[in-house]
């Protein structure tokens, strides 16, 4: 083998080696590329899976979002409708008559609810259904519908039984019939009720391409129908009350006129009575004075001695004349005070002096009867603002009465309360006498009234003492009342002003008040 | 008198009386015999011919613009009905206004172009700051409309605005231009002057599930997603509730779960409300969508909406730097307002908390919001958004 052959062989060997290396490299590359492609394919598949997962997740998100939005929309719609129902109900409740109620129902309310056909009807005075609101129906059809309602048993029963019907709560047969009557697919029919029964209905419906009504829609329409019923009832009640009130006002007005006339008559009569008493008293007192004078002359023997028997009779004439004068004086005083002709001389006086005078004056009678007089005057109140002669008269009359009706060994108490009543001193005259029956107390201050008891049957009296006391107290702006218990005793309370200020503040005499705890 | 702003609002049931009340409030605040510009936001029932002479007589405005809305945004909340009037008197701001009645006549590109051109012509100034538009009918093919605006105003020119709205009845939408009450029209306001503005736009929705691709689209109708009938995406996530999306203008389910189109250039999700499902399973969107885009079902909640309002306000605040806002305009999705409902006031309060309590706020709830994504640093593209809040502050 020469050198050139050896070189060629070396070159060929190198080429073969290089070719083998290239093949090996290619084989290696092929194997690794396959891996890369495989890896890339796997990555691609992963990515695709992720995308698909992402899509599925997105689908879930969208559907959840749809649900949420649907719920939100429904809530918004419901809220809007509720607001509208509330607004309409408020407006309806302010209506004062039935027609006004229906005028205040806005068609927008039903549009908001999504109804395109609405009928609201109520019965008129002749109990015939009349349409108050019509959305979506032509007039001739409305009349036909009202007739068909009367003929459809399911609707009649619903009206009678106060039961709402809707396309989601009634049988297929009923649904079909109602759909035919109202020419709708979806509907709610709700009766309008009052306490007197059914007065109409609310119907709301939709045509065939509208969504089905919901339970919520049904509840809203039912509530709304209830509101209409309530408002109608309120309006009817208002009308009734209004009419009654007008009648009452008329009656009161007439009665007031009658009473005013009667009062005028009473006042006139009372005035005439006072004038008559005053006149008669004057007329009686003059001859009585003469009688008394002549009797006194005769008793004194100024025109010659009279027999003892005659003297006794004359003494009786004199005594009875005294009684008569007393009676006439009382009547005159009452008449004067009632007619306002009696001039009162008000001044401040010490209570103690007044009570002492009264006690001194009545001591002989008290001693003669054998009763005890107690005087309990609260020291806090010292003076009163009164016409002293009249004030003394009140005490004298009341204490005299007490003496009369208190048995021997009994007690009479003149007391002055420590607390004032609106600037007035509260006096009381109580006894441990026979007491006055409750039934008699009301009449006690009436003229000429005398309690029907044994003492009064034997002891003379005019029945004017308490009336005079009452008039005097009232002339002072005070009041007088009595408490009594049969067999226990009687207490007269009366008030007199403590000062000019108190008297001025109570210028208008208060109505006499009987406070009877017995 | 650099710039005076007055805002009046009334819910008096009688529209002319309400308009008069709102005008008087504006006049009292401006204390001037005439007004440079007034912008009106009112619920459709308040937009009646009788209000025009009252506005003219009371405020003597030089420029009048407005839109119907299902929600009037004010500093104290969102009113579902009523009329709000904002008056501006300024010695530094200049205004140019324009209108294209009946947008169906011209193609959308030309409509946008003409709207901007007329406003430029009316402004009569070599410079301009920001363009505001209220429109109806452009939303289904808004890309050429925006392109038309950009061609006239310049690429990257700030364009904001709103699609007129009502309370989802889609019966009568209005645009107001001077003494005309227009329908199916576009109106525009071009502003210029030595003032600053800042804006922020956010929606607060998050994507759900794996990314899918819009495989076939005709303007605003998405035919297929991942080569499946487009409705399958809703059926997959919503189940039987997807049936409720048929034959609707915009219900709460659709508002809750708009589609999110991922925009590569913005790095954001552009929201699209759906307004119908066709028999073949195609989804009808409120506005146009691009083919081939990544799409997700989107979700939000009251908190994320509120947070997005705060974020939008923060963007405005950052752009304003040390400057104090004099007026805040808010354009917010009516669908979003439907989601927020009673929480709408919280959102307004959140904006006030960030930007200041005493700044006048006025705005409208719309069927679509024009604006860039995010803030001032992203002005190059204007989009028509759904379910978003756009805050514009003038300082």
Top keywords for this entry?
heterodimer; A: alpha+beta; Beta-Lactamase; Heat Shock Protein 90; 5-stranded mixed sheet; 15% strand; B: 395 residues; alpha+beta; Thrombin, subunit H; 8-stranded antiparallel sheet; 6-stranded mixed sheet; 9 helices; globular
Chain-wise SSE layout:
The complex is a heterodimer of chains A (518) and B (395).
Chain A: H1 3-94, H2 98-103, H3 107-113, E1 117-123, E2 129-135, H4 139-151, H5 153-161, E3 165-166, H6 172-182, E4 186-194, E5 197-206, H7 215-300, H8 308-339, E6 346-350, H9 351-369, E7 372-377, E8 383-387, H10 388-405, E9 411-416, E10 424-431, H11 438-441, H12 454-458, H13 465-475, E11 480-485, E12 489-497, H14 500-505
Parallel strand pairs in A: 7-9
Antiparallel strand pairs in A: 1-2, 1-5, 3-4, 4-5, 6-8, 9-10, 10-12, 11-12
Helix pairs in contact in A: 1-3, 1-7, 7-8, 8-13, 9-10, 10-13
Chain B: E1 3-10, H1 15-30, E2 35-42, H2 51-59, E3 61-68, E4 72-74, E5 77-79, E6 83-90, E7 94-100, H3 108-123, E8 130-135, H4 142-153, E9 159-163, E10 175-177, E11 180-182, E12 186-192, E13 197-202, E14 206-218, E15 221-225, E16 228-229, H5 232-238, H6 252-256, E17 259-263, E18 268-272, E19 274-277, E20 283-285, E21 294-299, H7 302-320, E22 327-333, H8 334-340, H9 344-355, E23 361-366, E24 369-372, E25 382-385, E26 389-394
Parallel strand pairs in B: 2-3, 8-9, 22-23
Antiparallel strand pairs in B: 1-6, 2-6, 3-10, 4-5, 4-23, 7-12, 8-12, 9-24, 10-11, 13-26, 14-15, 14-21, 15-16, 15-20, 17-18, 17-21, 19-20, 22-26, 24-25
Helix pairs in contact in B: 1-2, 3-4, 7-9
Order of helices and strands of chain A: HHHEEHHEHEEHHEHEEHEEHHHEEH
E-strand count of chain A: 12
Q: What is the general shape of chain A?
A: elongated
Number of separate strands of chain B: 26
**Neighbour order of strands in the largest sheet of chain A:** 2-1-5-4-3
Taken from the alpha-carbon principal axes, the silhouette of chain B is globular
Q: Compute the number of structural domains of chain B.
A: 2
The amount of helix of chain B comes to 25-40%
> Unreliable runs of chain A, pLDDT <50, ≥5 residues?
508-518
Structural class of chain A: alpha+beta
Gyration radius of chain B, in Å = 20 Å
Number of helices of chain B: 9
User: Hey, which two chains have the biggest interface?
Assistant: A-B, 14 and 16 residues
User: For the record, what is the CATH homologous superfamily label of the domain at 344-505 in chain A?
Assistant: Histidine kinase-like ATPase, C-terminal domain
CATH class of the domain at 344-505 in chain A: Alpha Beta
Number of helices of chain A: 14
